[in-house]
UniProtKB/TrEMBL annotation, chain A:
It comes from Streptomyces inusitatus. Its EC number is 7.1.1.-. Belongs to the complex I subunit 6 family. This is NADH-quinone oxidoreductase subunit J. Keywords: Cell membrane, Membrane, NAD, Quinone, Transmembrane, Transmembrane helix. GO terms for cellular component: plasma membrane. The keyword Membrane applies. It comes from the Bacteria. The lineage of its organism: Bacteria, Bacillati, Actinomycetota, Actinomycetes, Kitasatosporales. Pfam families: Oxidored_q3. Residues 193-204, 291-304 have a biased composition (Basic and acidic residues). It catalyses: a quinone + NADH + 5 H(+)(in) = a quinol + NAD(+) + 4 H(+)(out). Its main location: membrane.
UniProtKB/TrEMBL annotation, chain B:
The chain crosses the membrane at residues 30-54, 89-106, 118-135, 181-203, 209-227, 248-266, 278-299, 375-394, 414-437, 466-485, 505-529, 610-628. Gene3D superfamilies: 1.20.5.2700. It comes from Streptomyces inusitatus. It holds the Pfam family Proton_antipo_M. It is a multi-pass membrane protein. It is found in: Endomembrane system; Membrane. This is NADH-quinone oxidoreductase subunit L. GO terms for biological process: ATP synthesis coupled electron transport; electron transport coupled proton transport. Residues 69-119 form the NADH-Ubiquinone oxidoreductase (complex I) chain 5 N-terminal domain. It comes from the Bacteria.
From TrEMBL, chain C:
The chain crosses the membrane at residues 6-23, 28-48, 60-83. Its EC number is 7.1.1.-. Belongs to the complex I subunit 4L family. It comes from Streptomyces inusitatus. One of its GO terms (biological process) is ATP synthesis coupled electron transport. This is NADH-quinone oxidoreductase subunit K.
C-alpha cells in the first residue's frame, strides 16, 4: 500500500483499477450503512450500521493516503466513540424500538424536500467546481519520512495553538460530562427505620415490596411476580424497567407451561395406568424417549 | 376731498355697529339713526359728485389709501379706495335708493319688534356694497363681496322663525358661495399672473398676458358675477330670496347685490376685452338668463316672485350688454341705474300692496286695487311703464340702447342677440302688463281669510309713499336725463371706453321695432288678463306655464344634478373609503395578523422543525452561492 | 475512476445524515447522524488533502475528530441526564420552547 506504485496512483487524476473497484464496492456498502443508520428502528442496530460505515470510511482514508487518520478513525471513532454510544444505548434501553411514524405534521416532506434539494445542490456544486487535477500525497507523505511524521511536523509547528486549545477543549468536555451526569447527594440517606416509619405513615404498602420472578420458574428482575389469580403484578418490577416498558410478562407462558406439565404428568400417570389396564399403543415407545427428554428438562427447570 | 371716500363706507358701517351692538335702548330711535346715517352717506356721495363734476373728465378719479392691510414681502394688499365715474354712479345709486328704502322701511317694519336689528343689517348691507364698489383692488373688493353675501343672508333670513325664510337664506348663501369660489380663483390667478391685486396694475398690464390666462380669469369672474347677479346657472336663489321682507327685496334687486356682478364685469372690462371667448360666454349667459327670467316672470302668481323673475331678466340685459364689450358697458350701467329706480319703485309698490292686503302675495286675490291705493297705483304704474320701455320713460332709453348695442355687435351674433333682446322686451311687456292688470284692474277678488278677517285695502303711510313717489320720478325722468344728449355716455366713457360697433340697421328702425314688440306684448296680456276676468284659482296652464311656475325646473335640475350627484359621489366615496381604504388598512392588519398566526405555528418548539429551517436555509444559501457564481 | 467521486460520496453521506437528523426522534440516533455528517466532512477533507498535495486537510480532519469526541462526550452526558429527568430520549419530548 505504501509502495511506489501506490504513491504514483495517488498523484494521478485517475486512480488504479483496484482502488476503483474498492471505491464502488465499499462506497455502496457505506451508503447502505448510512441509510440503515437512519432507518433502523432500534438504536443498537443504528449504532452498528454507523460503525460499519465508519470502518469503510477508515479504509477510504487509507486509500487516500491518510494512513494516520485511517487508524485513528478505527481506534477512536469506531473503537471509543461508538462504544460510548453503545453504553448510552444500554443505559437508555437497548431493547426499546423507536416508532418510525412521524408525529410532526409535514416534517417528513419538508425533510425530504430539503434533503433532496441540498443533496442536488451539493452535488451540482461539486460537479461545477474545477477539480480535475489531483496532486497526490506522495511528496507530502515522504517529506518528513512518512505520513505520521508529516502530520506531527504540521501539528506541532503550524497548528500548535489549535492543538493546545483542543486539549483544553477535551478537558472541558470531560469535566462537563462529569458535571452533567454526576448527581450530588445533598441530604443524608434514610435509615431502614426511617423508611419503615415513612411506609407506615403513607399507609400504601406496609410490608416490603414483593420480589420479582415466578418462583420455581423465573427469577429474572424483568419478570413480574404473579398474583394468586395468575395475573402479573407490576409492583414487583423496579421502576426503571417499568418506565422503559421492559417487562416480560410470562403469566400466560407459565400457565401454558403448567398445563403442558400437567398434561405430561397425566400422560405419564395414564401410561402407567394404561400399561396396567389398557395396554400400550404403538406410539408409546416413540413417545417414551421424548417423554424422558421432557422430564429431564422439567426437572432441570425445577432445580433452577 | 378724497378723504371723504372712507366716510362713505364708515357712515353706514357705524350705523350697523351701533345698532347691532347698542342693545334695546336703541329700539325706539334706532331706525332714525340708521336712516340718518344712510342719508349722510348719500349726502357725502353728492358732495363728492359735485366735486367730481368740477374736474375735467380725465382728472375725476380719486384715490384714498387708508393703511396697508397685509404687508408681506411680495404680497401687498392695501385698504385703499378708488372713486371714479363708475364707482360714483354706483355710490349714488346705492346710497340714494338705499336711503329711500330705509325711509320706506320705517313704515313697513313699524310693527316688527326686531326693527332695530333690521336697520342694522340694512346699514351693514350698504357699507359692504359701498366697500365693494369703492375698493381699488380685487382683494378688498372680495371683502366687500363677502360682506354683501353675509348681509343678504342675514336679511333674507330676517324672519328666521319661518323655516322657508331660513332655508331661502341658506340657499342664497350657498349658491353665492359657488360664485365666491369663482371670484377667489380669479383673484388667485390674477396674483400669480400679475403679482398684484390692484385695479390699475392688473388692468393696465392685460396686454402683456396670454389670452388663455385672461379667458380663465374672465370665466372665473363670470362665475362670480353669476352667483351674485343670479344668472344662469346660479339663478336659483333669487326667487326664494323673496322670503325676506319686501324692502330687502327692493334693496337686493335694485341697488345692491345683484348689481355687483354687472359692476365686476364692467370694472374688469379690460380683461374681457382681451378675452373674446370669455366675452362670448358672458353674452350667452346674459341672453339665456334674460329669456329665463322673463319666462318665469310670466307664470308666477306671487307678485314678488313675478318681479324677481323680471329682475333676473333685466340683469340678464345688463350682463348681455356688458358682454358686448365697449359697445355695451355704458348702457349696461345706464340700464342698471334706471332699473334701480323703477325696480325699487315696483318692489316698494308691491310691498305697499301687501301692506294693505294683510301680506297676501297672490295676485289672483288682488284685483281692482287702483281705487283703494291711488298713490301706489300711480307710482307702480309709472314703474311699470318704465320697465316695459314705454317711449319717453327711463326704461325706454336704456333698454333701447342695449338692443341697439346688441345689433351693433355685428354679424350673425348681432342679429341673434338683437332678436333675443327684442323677444325679451316683448315678454317683459307681457308679464309686467299681466302683473299690472291682475293687481290694480278688474274686479276685486279678495276673500276673508281663514279667521274671517276680510282685508281692507288702504293706502300706506307717508313714510312709505314718499320714497315711492321719489322713485317714480326717477323712473320717469332718469332715462331721458341720461340718454338725451348722451350725458351718461360722456360721463362714463373715460372709464369704460366706448365703441359704436357696426349697426346693421338704423337706430330708428330698432326703436320702432322695440315699440312694436312692446305693443304686441301689452296687447296679448290685455287680451288674456284685461278683457276676461282673472280666475282666483290658477288654471292648470300649458306645459310651459307649469314649467315656468316651477322656475323652469331649476331646483329639480339642481337637485338631480348636484344633490343627487353629490349624494352619489359621497356614497361612492364612502364606499371606496369603506372597501378600498379601510380594506387596505384592515386587510394589511388582518394579513399581518394572519401571517403572524401562521408564522407562530412554525415556532412549535420542536428542535427538528428548527433543524429543517436551518437545513433549508443552508440549501438556499448554497443555491444563492451557485447562482452568483453562475452569473 | 476520478478521485472526485469521494466528494460525491461524502455529499451523499452528509445529506443522508442531515435527513436522519430531521427524521429521527431518538436523541441518540440523531447524534449518530451528526457523527455521520462529521465523518462525511472528514472524507472531503482527506480527499481535498490528496488533491492539493499537502497534509493540512488531514490535520483539520484530525481536529474534527477531536472536537467530535468532545461533543459526543458532552452530548451523551446531556442525553443521559435528560433521560434521567424525563425518562425519555425523544427530542420531541423536549419541546418546552413551544408557546
Amino acid at each position: 500500500m505504501t509502495g511506489l506504485s501506490g504513491l504514483n496512483t495517488l498523484a494521478a487524476t485517475t486512480t488504479s483499477t483496484g482502488e476503483a473497484v474498492q471505491f464502488w464496492v465499499l462506497g455502496t456498502v457505506a451508503v447502505i450503512g448510512a441509510l440503515c443508520t437512519i432507518l433502523m428502528r432500534r438504536a443498537v442496530h443504528s449504532a452498528l450500521c454507523l460503525a460499519g460505515t465508519m470502518i469503510i470510511l477508515a479504509v477510504f482514508y487509507l486509500a487516500n493516503g491518510a494512513y494516520f487518520l485511517g487508524v485513528v478513525q478505527i481506534v477512536v471513532y469506531t473503537g471509543a466513540i461508538m462504544m460510548l454510544f453503545l453504553f448510552v444505548v444500554m443505559l437508555v434501553g437497548v431493547t426499546a424500538a423507536d416508532s418510525l411514524k412521524e408525529t410532526l405534521k409535514g416534517q417528513r416532506w419538508l425533510a425530504a424536500l430539503c434533503g433532496l434539494g441540498f443533496g442536488v445542490l451539493l452535488i451540482a456544486g461539486i460537479g461545477h467546481a474545477s477539480l480535475s487535477t489531483f496532486n497526490g500525497l506522495g511528496a507530502a507523505n515522504t517529506a518528513h519520512g512518512g505520513n505520521v511524521e508529516g502530520l506531527a511536523a504540521l501539528l506541532f509547528t503550524k497548528y500548535v495553538f489549535a492543538f493546545e486549545i483542543t486539549g483544553a477543549l477535551l478537558i472541558t468536555a470531560a469535566v462537563g460530562a462529569m458535571v452533567l451526569t454526576h448527581k450530588e447527594r445533598t441530604e443524608r440517606s434514610l435509615t431502614q427505620r426511617e423508611m419503615a416509619e415513612r411506609r407506615v405513615r403513607e399507609g400504601k404498602q406496609l410490608p416490603p415490596l414483593p420480589a420479582p420472578g415466578v418462583y420455581a420458574r423465573h427469577n429474572a428482575v424483568d419478570i413480574p411476580g404473579l398474583l394468586p389469580d395468575g395475573t402479573p403484578s407490576e409492583l414487583t418490577v423496579i421502576s426503571t424497567l417499568r418506565e422503559r416498558g421492559q417487562i416480560r410478562d410470562v403469566s400466560a407462558k407459565a400457565l401454558s407451561d403448567l398445563k403442558a406439565l400437567e398434561q405430561r404428568s397425566e400422560d405419564r400417570l395414564g401410561r402407567h395406568g394404561s400399561t396396567s389396564s389398557t395396554g400400550p399403543a404403538t406410539g408409546t415407545t416413540t413417545g417414551s424417549t421424548g417423554d424422558r427428554a421432557d422430564r429431564d428438562r422439567d426437572e432441570e427447570e425445577a432445580t433452577r | 376731498m378724497e378723504n371723504l371716500i372712507a366716510l362713505l363706507i364708515a357712515a353706514p358701517l357705524l350705523g350697523a355697529v351701533v345698532l347691532l351692538c347698542g342693545g334695546r335702548r336703541l329700539d325706539r330711535t334706532g331706525h332714525w339713526l340708521g336712516t340718518a346715517l344712510a342719508g349722510a352717506s348719500f349726502l357725502i356721495g353728492v358732495v363728492l359728485f359735485a366735486g367730481m363734476l368740477g374736474e375735467s373728465a380725465d382728472e375725476r378719479t380719486l384715490h384714498q389709501r387708508l393703511f396697508s392691510w397685509i404687508p408681506v414681502e411680495g404680497f401687498q394688499a392695501d385698504i385703499a379706495f378708488q372713486l371714479d365715474q363708475l364707482s360714483m354712479t354706483f355710490v349714488l345709486l346705492i346710497t340714494g335708493v338705499g336711503t329711500l328704502i330705509h325711509i320706506y322701511s320705517i313704515g313697513y317694519m313699524e310693527h316688527d319688534e326686531r326693527r332695530r336689528r333690521f336697520f342694522g343689517y340694512l346699514n351693514l348691507f350698504l357699507s359692504a356694497m359701498l366697500l365693494l364698489v369703492l375698493a381699488d383692488n380685487y382683494l378688498l373688493l372680495y371683502f366687500g363681496w363677502e360682506g354683501v353675501g353675509l348681509a343678504s343672508y342675514l336679511l333674507i333670513g330676517f324672519w328666521q322663525h319661518k323655516p322657508s325664510a331660513a332655508t331661502a337664506a341658506k340657499k342664497a348663501f350657498l349658491v353665492n358661495r359657488v360664485g365666491d369660489i369663482g371670484l377667489s380663483i380669479a383673484i388667485m390667478l390674477m396674483f400669480t399672473t400679475f403679482g398684484t391685486f390692484a385695479f390699475g396694475p392688473v388692468l393696465g398690464s392685460v396686454g402683456e398676458t396670454g389670452e388663455g390666462t385672461l379667458t380663465a380669469i374672465g370665466l372665473m369672474l363670470l362665475l362670480a358675477a353669476c352667483g351674485k347677479s343670479a344668472q344662469v346657472p346660479l339663478q336659483s336663489w333669487l326667487g326664494d330670496a323673496m322670503e325676506g321682507p319686501t324692502p330687502v327685496s327692493a334693496l337686493i334687486h335694485a341697488a345692491t347685490m345683484v348689481t355687483a356682478g354687472v359692476y365686476l364685469i364692467v370694472r374688469s372690462g379690460a380683461i374681457f376685452n382681451a378675452a373674446p371667448d370669455a366675452q362670448l360666454v358672458v353674452v350667452v349667459v346674459g341672453a339665456v338668463t334674460l329669456l329665463f327670467g322673463a319666462v318665469v316672470g310670466c307664470a308666477k302668481d306671487d307678485i314678488k316672485k313675478a318681479l324677481a323673475g323680471s329682475t333676473m331678466s333685466q340683469i340678464g340685459y345688463m350682463i348681455l350688454a356688458a358682454g358686448l364689450g365697449p359697445i355695451g358697458y355704458v348702457f349696461a350701467i345706464m340700464h342698471l341705474v334706471t332699473h334701480g329706480f323703477f325696480k325699487a319703485g315696483l318692489f316698494l309698490g308691491a310691498g305697499s300692496v301687501m301692506h294693505g292686503m294683510n301680506d297676501e302675495v297672490d295676485m289672483r286675490k288682488y284685483g281692482g286695487l287702483r281705487k283703494h291705493m291711488p298713490i301706489t297705483f300711480v307710482t307702480f304704474g309709472l314703474g311699470y311703464l318704465a320697465i316695459i320701455g314705454f317711449p319717453g320713460l327711463s326704461g325706454f332709453f336704456s333698454k333701447d340702447k342695449i338692443i341697439e348695442s346688441a345689433f351693433a355687435k355685428g354679424g350673425a351674433e348681432g342679429w341673434i342677440l338683437g332678436a333675443v333682446t327684442l323677444l325679451g322686451a316683448a315678454i317683459t311687456a307681457f308679464y309686467m302688463t299681466r302683473v299690472m292688470l291682475m293687481t290694480f284692474f278688474g274686479e276685486k277678488r279678495w276673500q276673508p281669510d281663514a279667521e274671517g278677517h276680510e282685508p281692507h285695502p288702504h293706502e300706506s303711510p307717508r313714510s312709505m309713499t314718499i320714497p315711492m313717489i321719489v322713485l317714480a320720478f326717477g323712473s320717469v325722468f332718469a332715462g331721458g336725463f341720461f340718454g338725451i344728449g348722451d350725458r351718461f355716455l360722456n360721463w362714463l366713457e373715460p372709464v369704460t371706453g366706448y365703441d359704436h360697433g357696426h349697426a346693421p340697421i338704423s337706430a330708428a328702425t330698432v326703436t320702432t321695432a322695440t315699440v312694436v314688440v312692446l305693443l304686441i306684448g301689452v296687447g296679448v296680456a290685455w287680451l288674456m288678463y284685461g278683457r276676461r276676468p282673472v280666475p282666483v284659482l290658477a288654471p292648470r296652464g300649458s306645459l310651459l306655464t307649469r314649467a315656468a311656475r316651477r322656475d323652469l325646473y331649476q331646483d329639480d335640475i339642481n337637485h338631480a344634478v348636484l344633490v343627487r350627484g353629490g349624494e352619489h359621489l359621497t356614497r361612492s366615496l364612502v364606499y371606496v373609503d369603506h372597501t378600498l381604504v379601510d380594506g387596505v388598512v384592515n386587510g394589511t392588519a388582518a394579513s399581518v395578523g394572519g401571517l403572524s398566526g401562521r408564522l407562530r405555528k412554525m415556532q412549535n418548539g420542536y428542535a427538528r422543525s428548527y433543524a429543517v429551517s436551518m437545513f433549508g436555509g443552508t440549501a438556499v444559501l448554497i443555491a444563492a452561492t451557485l447562482l452568483m457564481r453562475a452569473v | 475512476m476520478n478521485p472526485v467521486n469521494y466528494l460525491y460520496l461524502a455529499a451523499l453521506l452528509f445529506t443522508i445524515g442531515a435527513a436522519g437528523v430531521l427524521i429521527r426522534r431518538n436523541a441518540i440516533v440523531v447524534f449518530m447522524c451528526i457523527e455521520l455528517m462529521l465523518n462525511a466532512c472528514n472524507l472531503t477533507l482527506v480527499a481535498f488533502s490528496r488533491m492539493h498535495g499537502n497534509l493540512d486537510g488531514q490535520i483539520i480532519a484530525f481536529f474534527v475528530m477531536v472536537v467530535a469526541a468532545a461533543e459526543v462526550v458532552v452530548g451523551l452526558a446531556i442525553i443521559v441526564s435528560l433521560f434521567r429527568s424525563r425518562h425519555s430520549a425523544s427530542v420531541d419530548d423536549a419541546s418546552l420552547m413551544k408557546l
